[in-house]
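CO-FOLDING WORKSHEET

Operator: S.A.
Ligand of interest: zinc ion
Run index: 432
Mode: holo prediction, single chain
Checklist:
[x] sequence pasted
[x] SMILES validated
[ ] output reviewed
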Amino acid sequence: MRTLFTNARVDGTGRTLDLLVEDGAFARIGERLSEALPAQGMDLAGVETVDLGGRLVCPPFCDTHLHLDYVFTARKPGATNESGTLFEGIRRWSETKSDLSVEEVKERARRAVAMELRHGVQFIRTHADVTDPRLVSLRALLELREELRDLVTIQIVSFPQEGMYSYRGPSGESGADLVEEGLRMGADCVGGIPHYEMCREFGERSMHTVVDLAVKYGRLIDVHCDETDDPNSRFVELLAALAHREGIGELTTASHTCSLGSADDSYFFHLTKLLRAARINFACAPTENLYLQGRQDTYPKRRGITRVKELSDNGVNVSLGQDSMQDPWYPLGNGNMMIILDYLLHLSQMMSFAELDDALRFATVNGATTMRLGDGYGIAEGRPANFIVLDADGPFDAVYRRADVIRSVRAGRTLFTATTTVRSDVAPLTLA
Ligand SMILES: [Zn+2]
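OUTPUT RECEIVED:
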């Protein structure tokens, strides 16, 4: 099974390439393959040709931080978050989660995945709340991971939403016990939430447990870390140090780290030394944290975002997540990574042309680095033929236009195409 995708703009140079896909992988990538390959003796008869029209082609979007078990629960009775804070969100979820069923979670999660797919996402890291002795969320998402694997790659974090040592289940089980049970059941990553634990010592202990479990089960780490405006919330330091000591920094992600937006510069300066050495990843959810943080502030009001620009300038990998879709933590969220990226660039003041030209990496390769996708990701010969087409003529144009994804291809198979053609006889509009 072969398809030749022609006229693909893969970078900002203006040149176009053709992509020959064979058995789900990129077989050849080069200029004018429709002429070059027959000249080299390859018979293209019977090969389907798809003209990509000179539009921008890039590897699929990666949403590295999402809660698929929470989606579309914001309007459930009792789930309304009146204060708009993270901590009320957790309480609302805790109070309303007892009626979940595997089928119901799957139905909601499936709708959310469909929205993400429609926006060009093909790689999702989702958290599954395991502070529930029935482990309903986890069982649902494990099933969905397998059912949808031809369409989307899902990584699941065994995540103790109500804490490792602050949560106690009806039979005395701790959140840590349930996280470990989640790993035995097949979760891909170990989760934690140290800033939510009842006291600092529990939070620190949970970081030791996270790293120990990751080593014991050979899994990745993704911790909700320092998701607070408190500049003294510094669990990322301990997480980075422990992961570095075990040699698993690159397998580790600190999500949110909003407190770095409040910490003073001398602390951050000291921390960057460790972060550069440990090579841990950061995941940022700009829209949710802009909404949730700064709620105790009057004015000036904090932005809730971690130091994306400064981390990036220090060579630290930062990726992006939607985090929420209509859940007790955020009433919006539709899986459109271009919206999330737009917020990131504004909130982080990353607006030099060099930064804008390179901005798509936050939603693409940086996410792949976080998720450790390796050779399973990227537009290169021999790799799976996964890519998206944006309605733009280059990387800057995509960011400038907040471009729509007009095609998504997975293992050579087109998942969808969309058209954004505007028809008008009104003179100024014909220039748009
Ligand atoms: Zn989260």
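REVIEW:
DSSP finds 14 helices and 16 strands in the chain.
The pocket of zinc ion is lined by residues 65, 67, 127, 224, 323 (CB under 6 Å).
[x] output reviewed
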